[in-house]
Amino acid sequence: MTGGFALRKVEASSATNFTALVEEHASDQFARLVMEVEPAEPHRIASMSLRAIPTPPDFRIQPLTEAALLKALRERLDQSSFSGAVLVAHHGKPIFAQAYGVADRATSTPNRLDTRFRIGSMNKMFTATAILQLVQAGRIGLNDPLGKYIPDYPNKDVAAKVTIHHLLTHTGGTGDFFGPQFDAHRLELRTLNDYVKLYGNRGLEFEPGSRWAYSNYGFLLLGVVIEKVTGQSYYDYVAAHVYQPAGMTRTGSLPEDQHVPDLSVGYTQMGGGSAAHPNTDTLPYRGTSAGGGYSTVEDLLRFANALTADKLLDAHNTELLTTGKVDTPGGGKYGYGFESRMINGQVCFGHGGGAPGMNGDLQICPQSGYTIAVLSNLDPPAATRVADFILNRLPPD
């Protein structure tokens, strides 16, 4: 997944310890390599770690002019095996929009700008926007406990202690739902309540508010809250109150047994074997409020434009939604369904998504007016690498 590493700087070296900065060959990502060897021959490696880190100050990438950035981006993509679609907009208008690779290898169907790609966790942005709409309308309180909206929630400790704020910021200790249980029941989980029936009795992983830990199940519960408060299905509410006002006509979460025109096939190399194969056996029956829908780069731009123009929320709640609140391990801050990062002196916010055979990223940089949307039907970090390449070189304004 990394393409290997280049040694950039030795930070410390002794007879038994070695620490260095390395950079991925295929991206801008840096990592810190720490190795310890046994002092006695044959000097076996006692421990070794390799952890991703933000770009060190000594290796900060200098911004480019817009023309130079687009030229470098085009050259990089033309020389790569990227499959997907890339869109860069400035002040809401596309300045680069191109599709690469194939949507379906069996039919040699090429990817297009209007090809639908699975977006994984990116629709956490849509879920959080829907919750904040209900907060704005006075129908949900951010500090209210989960049990106020789901009074029959099986685990009463979770219902009493976890608030809407905790769920939105991944600080509720509600854990994930991927794992052996999900694999065993993947095709039986057809509604959001099916997930609650399967996972609702388990306890908290930590005291709510005490730390940050990414929780797909937490965002699944936010979808249940939307259903309880509105009396609509999660899917119908988001379609009517997020997709429709934003003009997103090619975004949704139809079940896998329904035909979706122009939906790309995801290709993965995970799970053994060297050849990429369709990710069909990994997909849930239907996307949820935690992720798993599909969209296009053009629809993601429409969402970004509607959000920043305060068409989905008023200015106060848009800022509340997108402003970082809790530190994350990658050096950013997580807000409500959006993660914000400081990149070359400007704050950008958005969300990525990834699973076998799918990867995407949307980043909005209001200070300079740039928006980046990248979607791919390959394993992570195919789209993330492209988005980061652009972000790290954006003109400041």
Can you describe this structure?
- This protein is α+β, with helices and mostly antiparallel strands and 397 residues long.
- It has three domains: 55 residues; 196 residues, 3-Layer(aba) Sandwich (Beta-lactamase), CATH 3.40.710.10; 105 residues, no CATH class.
- The protein contains twelve helices and 18 strands.
- It has an eight-stranded antiparallel β-sheet, sandwiched between helices.
- The chain is globular, with a radius of gyration of 22 Å.
- It starts with a strand and ends in a 6-residue tail after the last helix.
- The mean pLDDT is 95.
**Secondary structure tally: strands:** 18
What do the pLDDT scores average to?
A: 95
The succession of helices and strands, N to C, reads EEEEHEEEEEHHHHHHHHEEEHHEEEEEEH
Strand content: 15-25%
Beginning-to-end CA distance, first to last residue = 33 Å
* Silhouette: globular
Considering the protein shown, what is the CATH homologous superfamily of the largest domain?
DD-peptidase/beta-lactamase superfamily
Domain module count: 3
In the CATH scheme, the class of the largest domain would be Alpha Beta
CATH topology name of the largest domain: Beta-lactamase
Which class of secondary structure composition applies to the elements?
alpha+beta
Across the major sheet, the strand order is 6-5-18-17-16-15-14-13
Number of helices: 12
- Which spans have pLDDT < 50 for at least 5 consecutive residues? none
Radius of gyration: 22 Å
